[in-house]
Write a structure and sequence with these properties.
Structural class: alpha+beta
Strand order of the largest sheet: 2-3-6-4-5
Helix content: 25-40%
Number of helices: 5
CATH class of the largest domain: Alpha Beta
Shape: elongated
Order of helices and strands: EEEHEEHEHEEHEEHE
Low-confidence stretches: none
């Protein structure tokens, strides 16, 4: 699989509702970068919807597409999690999760009805949140003398790097995210700064 410079994910959380024969399906689509983010949001939604009968979900994280999970949360096997993941994949998204909260309406929908409901509610949520293209970034930690600050900042700005954390004293420690496409240039230029130490995170 070729290495990508960009990936697609959702811009901000969106919620959409779908009803079928009294049952209500509320889909929440949101961006995540790690499994912990997802677990936190799932716990919040369970507290927000304590009377819901199911909290089904799917997510995909990472650039290789290998980190994903689906859950039918008590619905018939394959009727919820897979159709939700199918919607994430149909838009070629990663670092994206969808949780669908279901309130039972008294009528059984059957497996085809459930697949349709989970798929449709997920699709609706993805329709109302902007899909964004993000740069693949490589993370580094820089350590340098404060007198080198201007040189470092100039390179970071010119190479579109993001500063994710910084401690600025006489000796500075900075964590940066470098866009993959300008990685070679950034590393070359930082290497020329005297006394600067940088290591991959």
């Amino acid at each position: 699989m070729e290495e990508k410079d960009f990936f697609y994910t959702v811009d901000k959380e969106a919620a959409a509702e779908f009803k079928d024969r009294g049952s209500k399906f509320i889909a929440y689509a949101f961006a995540i970068t790690k499994v912990e983010d997802f677990k936190k949001r799932l716990d919040e939604l369970k507290k927000e919807h304590p009377k819901a009968v199911h909290h089904c979900f799917a997510y995909r994280i990472g650039l290789d597409g290998n980190t994903f999970r689906v859950s039918d949360d008590g619905e018939p096997s394959g009727s919820a999690g897979r159709p939700i993941l199918g919607q994430i994949d149909s838009k070629q998204l990663t670092n994206t999760a969808i949780i669908v909260v279901r309130y039972f309406g008294g009528t059984l929908l059957g497996v085809p009805g459930l697949i349709n409901a989970y798929k449709t509610s997920s699709a609706l949520a993805l329709q109302i949140t902007p899909i964004v293209q993000k740069q693949v970034e490589v993370h580094y930690q820089l350590e340098f003398d404060y007198t080198r600050m201007n040189e470092v900042m100039m390179i970071l700005k010119q190479c579109n790097c993001r500063i994710t954390e910084q401690q600025l004293q006489l000796f500075c420690v900075m964590k940066i995210a470098v866009p993959k496409q300008s990685l070679e240039l950034t590393v070359q230029r930082l290497n020329k700064i005297q006394g600067l130490v940088f290591k991959k995170q």
